[in-house]
Amino acid sequence: MRTLAVIFYLVLIPFSGFSRFTTLYPDIPRIDVHAHVHNNFGGIANYLSMRELMVSTHKIDLAMWINLGGESAIDTINELSGGRIMTCISDYSPQRGLTYKPGDMAPSLRKGYVGYKIWHGPYHRRLKEGEEGIKYIDDPAHEPVFAAMEKEGMPGASLHISDPNGPFGNRGNWAADPVAFWREIIGLERVLHRHPDLILVVAHGAWLVCQDAQLDFLRYMLSTYPNFYIDLAATFQYFYLLDHANLRDFFIEYPDRILYGTDIGSLADKSAIPEIVERYARTFRILETDQMVEGGFFSMNPVMGLNLPREVLEKIYYRNALKIYPGLESRMRDIELLN
Predict the structure, then answer these.
(1) What is the DSSP code string of 28-54?
(2) Torsion of CA 96, 121, 70, 325, to 10 degrees
(3) pTM
(4) Which of 15, 241, 253, 320 could staple 294 via S-S, CB 3.0–4.6 A?
(5) Using the 8-state DSSP alphabet, how is residue 246 labeled?
C-alpha cells in the first residue's frame, strides 16, 4: 500500500519541490547540531553565504552550527564565523580507543568546546580484516572518560554508534547484519545504564529509524534514559521506510529529545551552495508541511511531510540544543539571535 501511495503522489500531485518553499516560521532560529566544518576556513565563508541565501530564498533562519571537529582552530573558527559555529573535541578511531582522557574534559569545557564527538560505528568500517581493537562503545576502556564527562557536564555530541539496518529485503550496504547492528545498540544502552547523568546526543536517531520496530525500541530508550537525545542527521532519506502515522506520532511524543541536524560536510566548493540550500529546504519542508517532498538531505526518496506543530518544531530546531550544549544560549544572545 505504501508503494501505491507513493506512485499516486508521483503521478497525480506535482512535487512540492517544483515551487519555492517559504517557511511559515521565519522567526524560529534553526541550529544544525551535526556539521562537519572541521578546520576548513574557506568552508566557513561558504556556510555564511549559504545562510544568507537560505534567508533570501526560503525565509529560513539557519542561525548556527555545531562543528563536530576542528578543535585545533577553535578561536579562528569562532572569529571567522562571527560566533555562529561552535566546536567539539572529537575522536574517529575506535580501534585505538579514545584519544581524550578523563582529565581533558574540564579544560576543554573551559576552552569553549561544547561536546565530545565520538565516532564508534561498525568496527568493520575502520578495522582491517583480522585487526584487533576496541569494537564497541561499551568497552571497559571507555568507562573513565564517560565518568569524567558525566561529572564535568561534557555532553556526548552526535555519537555515531551504528549504521542503517533496513527491513528484510532492503538491509542496505552499511550494517546489513542485524545481529551486529543490535550488538552495537545494546552497547549504547549499557553506557546509558552505567552513567545515568551522562548527556548523550546520539547521531542519526541512533539509526533506529529504518524499521517501525526499531522506532518502537527508540521509544523505549527515550522513555527509560532521561539524558538520552537523538539528532536527525542523515535520517530523512529513510523516513519512507516507516509508517507515516507512526513516525509523526513519535515526533509529537518526544519533542524534548530530538535535535535538528544534517551531517553537512565542509562545503569547500562555493558553487555547491545553491544545491545545499535546497537540500536544507527539503528537510524543513518534511518537518513543517503535509506535502510529498522529493527527498531528504542526501537522497531523492519521496517522503510525506509530517506537518509538525510549531511548539514541536521550536524544540527540535533550537530549544533542545540550548539546554544541552554549554554556552550556546549565551553565544546566541551575544550575537542577537535570541531576545
Answers:
(1) SEEEEEEE--TT-HHHHHHHHHHHHHH
(2) -120
(3) 0.93
(4) 15
(5) H
